[in-house]
Design brief:
- With about 500 residues, the chain is mainly alpha-helical.
- It has a domain of about 230 residues.
- About 70% of the residues lie in helices and about 5% in strands.
- It is built from 24 helices and 4 strands.
- Helix 5 packs across helix 7.
- The longest helix is centred in the middle third of the chain and has 27 residues.
- The chain is globular, with a radius of gyration of 23 Å.
């Protein structure tokens, strides 16, 4: 029988890493194997028919139950598992509130005419020939300024999805461009939490970390821009041949005026002034509600006899505004806060699974197994990348995908004479940016819910995100700009 005295906690920036030396690698992998098997089986059923609309949530909970059984077998106290679940759920309180506010924001920005105005003017400025590269650049600049890929998607990202859809561009391509730019900016911004976390864990300073990241990040974003420029030449623009019809339909349904841009400008200004995201988004909802009464009186009258009720309804539930153009009707639809519940349930289920896996020591055990096979410098980089990717899948949280490998691999990088910025860069190249590629990861669930595009749809087009780990491995394999602790290093 296993003795729970082998459990120990390592506290790193409010993240508890639990190690269980008695847990073997196969026991640690059992819940993961079952989880991945169920998820693979589930995708064989159209629309998640195996367990209904919430099949992924149920599967994550089943995975958590299997992990708990493994924990009980290894004499891990129930309290230890429940504590980690609580810590995980506590850590997502703000993200969940942000998601609810994003739902409210989308609803009020629709009835106030903010999103239709963005689409209206955007159609006249952004042509299909430059649209995808422009999305990358716009989102990169906003994300660098705000330090948040989430805020970027919730503001300009939503608008760009609307503009691109009206132009007849595949939503997966648009979302991929938005996410690529947003995560580039997030990664390079000194205001980003992950950009501050990675060097803190690795033992280097923020600006050394950012400068060192440019070595791999700039080539990745340049390749991404070239790829989207090439993709732009293949776009079938049949949906955008008659812009006058689209513009006329929007103008007929809404009172379009440049004054509506004051709402998103106010939100972005608040974020640039380092206002808390919850406050900035809440202000955006309130401003949009006021503007709805001022500019969209006829729209509110069509939705309900009471204008006040129509605004409140847009915050909470589904809202659809019909236009003369059938292709715009789906675009001008919002789920409000209720539309975010599926995503919130997915995040909660993922945090329960990840909490139990952490509570039984499985996350640390998997990382230790990878560390044990890293016999070369390239093997060390590869093991770090795989560890970050694996923890994004298993723990469903990008912070754990940075903290746990960072803590576990720090001494190994030191022992090989590698400067700490090698580790911090690798953590960002593989932990931060790939989180959005996992449907049940907090980042993947958030981006999918906010943009209204499934991870499977945008995965291949999120070029910067999946390219970054390969870039860091390429530089490691060829020993390009691998900084050594000694003065002789490259």
């Amino acid at each position: 029988m296993k003795d729970n005295s082998n459990l120990s906690k390592i506290k790193v920036d409010d993240q508890n890493i639990i190690e269980n030396k008695e847990l073997n690698i196969w026991e640690a992998l059992v819940p993961v194997i079952i989880l991945m098997g169920l998820l693979f089986y589930n995708i064989q059923f159209e629309d998640g028919a195996m367990l209904g609309d919430y099949s992924n949530q149920f599967i994550l909970l089943i995975g958590g139950l299997i992990a708990a059984i493994v924990g009980f077998f290894n004499k891990v106290p129930l309290f230890s598992m429940l504590t980690e679940i609580y810590e995980n759920l506590k850590s997502i309180f703000i993200p969940v509130m942000i998601l609810l506010l994003v739902g409210a924001l989308a609803g009020t920005w629709l009835v106030s005419g903010v999103i239709p105005a963005m689409v209206y003017y955007g159609l006249q400025v952004l042509s299909p020939a430059i649209f995808l590269p422009a999305c990358v650049v716009i989102c990169a600049l906003i994300s660098i300024a705000t330090g948040s890929s989430w805020t970027t998607s919730a503001t300009v990202g939503i608008a760009l999805i609307g503009i691109g859809t009206a132009l007849g561009i595949h939503t997966g391509m648009i979302a991929g461009a938005v996410i690529s730019g947003a995560y580039f900016g997030d990664k390079m911004s000194p205001l980003s939490d992950t950009t501050n976390l990675a060097p803190a864990i690795a033992g280097t300073d923020l600006f050394t970390h950012i400068r060192y990241m440019t070595i791999t990040t700039v080539p990745s974003i340049l390749i991404t821009l070239v790829a989207f420029a090439i993709l732009s030449t293949t776009i079938d623009t049949t949906g955008s041949t008659d812009l006058s019809n689209l513009l006329g339909s929007i103008d007929a349904a809404f009172n379009i005026t440049p004054w509506l841009f004051l709402v998103p400008i106010a939100v972005i200004a608040l974020i640039l002034m380092k206002t808390k995201p919850l406050v900035a988004l809440a202000v955006g909802v309130v401003f949009a509600a006021i503007f709805a009464f001022i500019f969209q009186s006829s729209v509110l009258n069509e939705l309900h006899d009471s204008k006040l009720f129509a605004v409140f309804a847009s915050v909470i539930r589904d809202t659809q505004i019909s236009t003369e153009n059938e292709s715009l009707n789906e675009l001008f639809t919002s789920g409000g806060m209720a539309g975010m519940l599926w995503t919130i349930y997915l995040i909660i289920s993922a945090m329960i699974f990840g909490g139990i896996m952490d509570g039984i020591g499985a996350l640390a055990r998997v990382t230790r197994a990878l560390l044990s096979v890293a016999t070369t410098v390239f093997g060390l980089f590869a093991s770090t990348v795989v560890s970050c990717l694996g923890l994004n899948v298993i723990a469903s949280d990008q912070y754990l995908a940075i903290v746990i490998p960072g803590k576990m691999f720090k001494n190994a990088f030191d022992d090989r004479g590698l400067a700490p910025q090698n580790l911090s860069r690798t953590l960002e190249d593989s932990g931060t940016v790939t989180s959005v590629l996992i449907p049940w990861n907090t980042c993947g669930a958030y981006q999918s819910g906010v943009l209204g595009v499934g991870v499977a749809e945008y995965f291949v087009y999120a070029i910067f995100n999946w390219l970054s780990p390969f870039t860091t491995l390429f530089f490691a394999a060829l020993n390009i700009k691998i900084k050594q602790l000694s003065s002789k290093g490259g």
